[in-house]
Structure formats: structure tokens, C-alpha cells
Amino acid sequence: MKHEEILTALEEISDKHIKEAEKPPKKKKRTFLKMAVAAALVIAISTSIMNAPMRITAYVVAAASEPRMMERPDLDDYKERDEWKADYDVWDTERTLRNETAALATSSLSSFFTSGNSQFLQTKGNENKLWSPVNAYIGLAMATEITEGETRQQILDLFGAEDTYTLRKQVSAVWESVYQDNSNEICVLANSLWLEKGLQYNQEAMDAIAYHYYASVYQGDLGSKKTNQDIAAWINNNTGKFLKDSAESIELSPETIMALYSTLYFQAKWTDEFSESKNTEGVFHMPDGDTQAVYMNKKLKQMNYYWGENFSAVMLGLKNGSGMWFILPDEGMTINDVLSDGSYMDMLLSDEWEGCKYMKVNLSVPKFDVSSTMDLSKGLKNMGIQNAFSEENAEFTQLTSDSPIYLTAANQSVRVEIDEEGVKAAAYIEIPGAGSAAPPEEVIDFVLDRPFLFVITKDKLPLFAGCVNNPEN
User: Fold this and answer.
1) Which of 64, 143, 247, 300 sees the fewest Cβ atoms within 10 Å?
2) CATH number for the domain that contains residue 24
């Protein structure tokens, strides 16, 4: 197949991706005019592969499109080398185009990532804060398919996208760049949209969400035990049951007319694992008092050491291209100082950072299992998403003309754990409604024994970011 034909095919919705089912039940009567919307985004990083069968009883409005990445042609599968070479060239061109689009998207999103970290990770005392930039991006981007006017434009502006067509391309490229499922790493994403039974929806918008955002769209009695169980089953299926307790505690309000869920399931090991036998115990200096921590250590490790105006940093590689950055404020500086300055994000997104030296590092990283829960709505409003949260100004009219809809919160819970082998993490976001100078020595100690930032990245895209004030949580 020619490259032009493949690109054309990627723009079309295959009939097999849109499953028909029985006619939706009758619309539930409402006694009020304004309706708020409840939605949730779920992110999970775990250690087991999802394999349990999923049973959903809700009416299927639209089925999620499958990832549209062409598999790399294997020469062993071809009788003729010329045929393999032709297909390989198509695959290579498609991959290059996708990576270029994802890189452009990352550049456009740099302001969102930097502002988001500053809005959501500023801390007080010994609290830890975490969030997932990529998940928030994909979840909010989906909303452009069911909004219009200024409500949609504010989301487009936040992501530096000219229009919904551009945003669709960027999200698809980001999604497929992040997506990975092999022996080295698991990074699988999924989305779903749940509608109240009887809600008269725009089928064209539902099909667009299913295709461009890989989302399954269901309709059922939101707030009922059966639909709560359906949602829990969907989440468990897409997160390897890592969020089982949270999923099975979901109880949507009977007044909910829409619920959105998104998952990011990730697992990765260090390229150079730590040895448990080299672990030590020591003091971690929190903002308010000290605590004991278990430190994972590497002596005289050859690696890149980075520095900026008010921080120093190292990046530990994860298999198959991911990485985890550890950013340590200079003595006398705080996490909030680094976040407000924002230059650390330039380092993460840069191909060539001036403050970088390959050298021997004595590395000490505390094992930690940290979590936080917060409402992102205030920060999103500060970043320009005003109308979506306004009862008077929200325009979710691309979803339905039945009832005015608006968002009232954006609650996100995130957990990240690191050990000698690698990284695990999980997050759950719910939107309910009604530097220093260059190192002078050839060997430097990089000891994370006081508050620090971390960012888990894949192809420069920040999957998770957080500040650790207390490794013992």
C-alpha cells in the first residue's frame, strides 16, 4: 500500500470500529434546567498485564478505534526482499511523520506543562503533590469534540492548537508516540465516555471521539449500581486492577448526565537497576523536620549531570526510551522557587542543554511511595479554562442540546512508587459537577536528601510530575 493511501485510510472511520446495539432507553425526566457534568480521568502505572475479560452491559454508542500504528515489517515474514523494503519504507515514513507531529505538539504544549507544574505542584510544609500532564492534556482535548465557541477556543489556546483538526492530529501523534506494549515497557492508554440513558447525543461527535481519541462511548443509567460496576470493570480492565479499590468505590450521583474516564497504564524498569545490597538508611530533611529514608545508591556512576540557575539534575533511563528526571533545588532554594522560574522545563525539552557535563556521580535516591489528591479546577481556570466551569458560559452543545452542561471540579489523585527495579504509579482524576554553577570536580555527589522534583518522561513528554517533601508520605 502506498504511503498516501495509508494516510487516507487513517482519516476514515472503519465500520468495524462502530458497533451498533439496541435503541437507547427512554429519556429520564429532569426537574431542573441546568445540568452539571461528572467526568473522571484515570491514570495507572502497574506491574501486571491486563488480561481479564471485560463485561460491559451498557449500550454501546461508539467503539474505540484501535491504535493506528503500522507494525514494523519483519524480513522473515517476506518471500521477496524488495516487497519487505517497500513496506519498510512506508513504515519508516509513517513513523517519521508521526514523530515530527508529536515533536511539534510537545513544543506547543511546553507552556501548558510548565504552567501546570507551577499551578499544581507548589507545596506547603511536608506535603507531596503529583499530577499527570499528558493525561490532563488528552482528557481536556477530548472536550473540544463536545464543546464549541469560547469554551472550545480556551482549550485550543491552552494547547497552542489552531483548530480541532490540528489538535486531533497532535493528540493522535502524542498517543501513538507514547503507546508501547512489549517486553521492555508497557504504556497503554484508553478513554471512555459515559452518557445518561435517554440523553439525545450527537452521533457525529461520538464517532469523532471514538476515532480521534480512541474512546469507547457508552450509555446507561448513570448513578445506578449496574453502571457503576460497568465503569469499575472498564477501569480494572485497562489498569490491570491496580486501581481496584478506587474503581470499585465509584458511585456516580443519579443527577450525573456524563462521565469521562481516561487511563494511562505504564510499567518500566531502570536500564541500570539498583542493587538492594547497596541500600543504606539515612535522614531526609523535610521542610518541617526530618524523617528516615531508605536510599538506593550508585557509586561513581558515569552519567550526564545537569545544572541551571537554581537547580541541579540527573536523568535515570528506563527501558525502551522513557526516563525519570530528578531535579534538586540548590541550597537555600525551594521547590517553589524552581517551579516559578520554570527553566528546568527548558532543560527537559531541550536537545542540547548548555549546563550539562558527562562525569562520575555518587548517586543516592530515596525509595518512595508518594501520593496526593487535589482539585485542578482552580489551576485550570488560572490557565485560561474559564467557560467550561461556568454555569452561565459553558457550551457543551456539540454533545447534546437537551440540557446545558458545565464542569464543577477536576479532582486528581496520583501515586508514584520507585524501587530498585523501576517505576510504578497510578493516578485518578475526577471532574464532578452540578542552578547552580558548573561542577568543579570530576566526581560529584548527587544526594536527594531534601525536597526535590521528579518528572517521568517519554520522548520528552511528561507523563507524571511531582514534588517530594516526604518520601515516607
Assistant:
1) 300
2) 3.30.497.10
Within a domain: 187: yes
- What span, in angstroms and rounded, lies between the C-alpha atoms of 426 and 44? 4
Tell me if residue 294 falls in helix, strand or coil: strand
Classify residue 76: in a domain, yes or no: no
pTM of full prediction above 0.85: no
345-374 pLDDT, tens per residue? 999 988 889 899 999 999 999 999 887 777
CA distance 285 to 470: 8
| Nearest in space to 194 (alpha carbons), one of 258, 99, 286 | 258
Give a yes or no: residue 23 inside a domain.
Answer: yes
Is 236 within 8 Å of 228 (Cβ atoms)? no
Range of the domain at 150: 15-69+101-269+370-431
CA distances, 1 to each of 80, 91, 199 (Å): 16, 10, 42
Q: pLDDT (tens digit, 9 = 90+) per residue, 139-161?
A: 889 889 999 999 999 999 999 99
What is the C-alpha to C-alpha distance for residues 469 and 467, in angstroms, rounded to an integer? 6
Higher per-residue confidence, 349 vs 12 = 349
Distance CA(343)–CA(471), nearest Å, equals 25
